[in-house]
Amino acid sequence: MTADDLYSRTPRVYVETALAQSAVISLAEGQAHHLRQVLRLADAAHVRVFNAGDGEYAGQLRFEGKRGAAVLINTQLRLPQPGADIWLVATPLKKDAFDMMVEKASELGAARFVPVITDHTVVHRVNSERLIAQAVDAAEQCERLDVMQFSDLAPLATVLKSWPTDRRLFVALERSAAPPFLQVLHARPATPATPLAVLVGPEGGFSAAERAQLLSLPFAEPVSLGPTILRAETAGLAALAVLGGFLQGHGV
Amino acid sequence: MTADDLYSRTPRVYVETALAQSAVISLAEGQAHHLRQVLRLADAAHVRVFNAGDGEYAGQLRFEGKRGAAVLINTQLRLPQPGADIWLVATPLKKDAFDMMVEKASELGAARFVPVITDHTVVHRVNSERLIAQAVDAAEQCERLDVMQFSDLAPLATVLKSWPTDRRLFVALERSAAPPFLQVLHARPATPATPLAVLVGPEGGFSAAERAQLLSLPFAEPVSLGPTILRAETAGLAALAVLGGFLQGHGV
């Protein structure tokens, strides 16, 4: 049995505190509650703790009083490892669809979620605390080391105006002559060292004005995700899956 | 404005009856109810009707009595066009996750969903009527011409025993040395003419015995979907997105 097998069922806890062997890390009250009441862990249970800067460590849980908990840190299991630098730019959606998109984007390795308001956007607000909690949950579940970050909700035009021009922006366009996403990636290969982003529209797509603007941007590359008309959340996930698959499949 | 733009917002209705110009097609009571009460369409409203065998036609709605409706068929909008022959083999999941997987698999173009019981499967039944309704809804929404089909729920071992050996089976394996999915597809390209299938495991993955069996099958090809541990439904969708992207990106 490898260390990987041994620890693969051990609960993972994201902590922002610096991690090092023999350190004792206090957990937030919410985390302590989750480990004790939801996962029903006993005192001295094995856990894993992780963050992007320090990687992942084995640890042992110590409950403290009625509500507190700490982790005594043991050996390092994984070194820090930067993920690909991919942003998902997408519009808020109705609750279930948006929850799903945020969770799956985290699983599929997006580094940052940039929520934007477009001409056909229906939902005009996001709950930032809830989003962050979802991203932490997803990171704990899917074994990534970092946690997906969020930008503030802003109009698409504002985001595009201050766009970092070295970041390639793949724009998923339906009902268009845009070339298949993988064709675009092969023609000018993306690498994990490249800053990348995917933009998907809301239900009903981009407005004519938005399409015209997007097509005029030097850093934007229109792509097609296939012959069907995907729901907004499906488009976001399909784009991340294809981009992640490309980066992985080419060993870069 | 092209015909595509003109009709892109027109409701689509799946009908099994043969379609031909000037024919009058009676709709099922549930469809009539949906068009009248949910979409609030008026008599003589424009609709589109479609099926895999006949393609898609423009039509006009005729309400009949309190509960009936028919469509007077007008010009053909799309010729029949076979999709890729892709099966998704996956285990039933809790309601929300399974609903999501079925809907997104339809959108991403799976021709057939094969529900299987594996050693770590928790949910041991499916509601066939509900599944079919979901696949019809998704087809109407995402503009595919055919409707995803369902096999009966069966143990994985039974499905593998009667597997059509000319159908390539890509098995998503986590925590393994399986090569990236796109690498496997490039090494031996899949085409839409090839019968293909993707198998994803349940939460917790395949058992050791299942892994050993899967790795021994001549038609099974293990693949990796990336460095993170994906939830079952995410794995199914990521695999379909990558496979669809490959088929589309290579113009085959």
Q: What is this entry, summarized?
A:
The structure is a homodimer of 252-residue chains. Chain A folds into 2 domains: 76 residues, Hypothetical PUA domain-like, domain 1 (Ribosomal Protein L25, Chain P); 164 residues, Alpha/beta knot (3-Layer(aba) Sandwich). Chain A is 33% helix and 24% strand.
Description:
The structure is a homodimer of 252-residue chains. Chain A has 252 residues and is α/β, with parallel strands linked by helices. Chain A has two domains: 3-78, Ribosomal Protein L25, Chain P (Beta Barrel); 86-249, SPOUT methyltransferase, trefoil knot domain (Alpha/beta knot, 3-Layer(aba) Sandwich), CATH 3.40.1280.10. The first copy, chain A, is 33% helix and 24% strand. Chain A has helices at 3-7, 29-38, 95-107, 128-142, 156-161, 181-187, 208-216, 232-249, and strands spanning 12-14, 24-26, 46-51, 55-64, 68-78, 86-90, 112-117, 149-150, 154-155, 168-172, 196-199, 220-223. In chain A, the strands form two sheets. In chain A, strands 6, 7, 8, 9, 10, 11 and 12 form a seven-stranded parallel β-sheet that branches. Chain A has a five-stranded mixed β-sheet with strand order 1-3-4-5-2.
